[in-house]
Amino acid sequence: MQPVVVIDTNILIAALIVRTSPPAQLYEAWKKRRFLLVTSEAQLREFARATRYPHVRRFIKPAEAGRLVNQIRALATMLKRLPSVTASPDPADDFLLAMVEASHADYLVTGDKSGVLTLQRYGKTRIVTARQAVALLNG
Q1: What are the pLDDT digits (tens) for 99-138?
Q2: Among 14, 59, 90, 136, which is most buried by a count of CB atoms within 10 Å?
Q3: Euclidean distance between the first and the last CA atom of the chain, given in angstroms as a whole number
Q4: What pLDDT, on the 0 to 100 scale, is given for residue 1?
């Protein structure tokens, strides 16, 4: 059975910026169907908004961002309804924990060291870095 994974938007963006990084390795593992990716419209909206910031746009072309969104729409599990969650140190990340809760995810992968990563767990879900996720999925 494939692990169920929620990937924070910052990891998706990092995967497009540095092609040999742990986030990029995670993205490649997903495209090879090593795990089931779970997302939501809320996350895709956040991704679209974040990739329009000038400091991000210097590194990611709009076509690359669009291609990633199209792949996610085609291959990921899209959650329709998210529960109300107020458990993140950063309220803007509560939707990630809502996706975790709705999907019963095995892992939440993030680079947010001062945010959800500090929780380490949310219910049965382990909250890990991209490097840790790559090691766990390869192990």
Answers
A1: 999 999 999 999 988 889 999 999 999 999 999 999 998 8
A2: 14
A3: 14
A4: 84
Report the C-alpha gap between 3 and 56 in whole angstroms: 30
- State the greatest distance between any 2 C-alpha atoms of the chain, in Å, as a whole number: 40
User: Residues near 102 by Cβ (< 8 Å), separated by ≥ 6?
Assistant: 38, 79, 81, 82, 83
Residue whose tokens read 């059975």: 1
The secondary structure of the chain in percent helix, strand, coil, rounded to multiples of 5, reads: 55, 15, 30
Considering only CA atoms, give the Rg of the chain: 14
**Contact between residue 96 and residue 88 where contact means Cβ atoms under 8 Å apart:** yes
Superfamily grouping for domain 4-138 = 5'-nuclease (3.40.50.1010)
pLDDT digits (tens, 9 = 90+) for 37-51: 999 999 999 999 999
Residue 31 tokens read as 């495209």
Contacts 24+ apart (CB under 8 A), 20-25: 21/130, 22/129, 22/130, 22/131, 22/133, 22/134, 23/111, 23/130, 25/130, 25/134
Residues linked to residue 107 through DSSP beta bridges, in sequence order = 5, 126
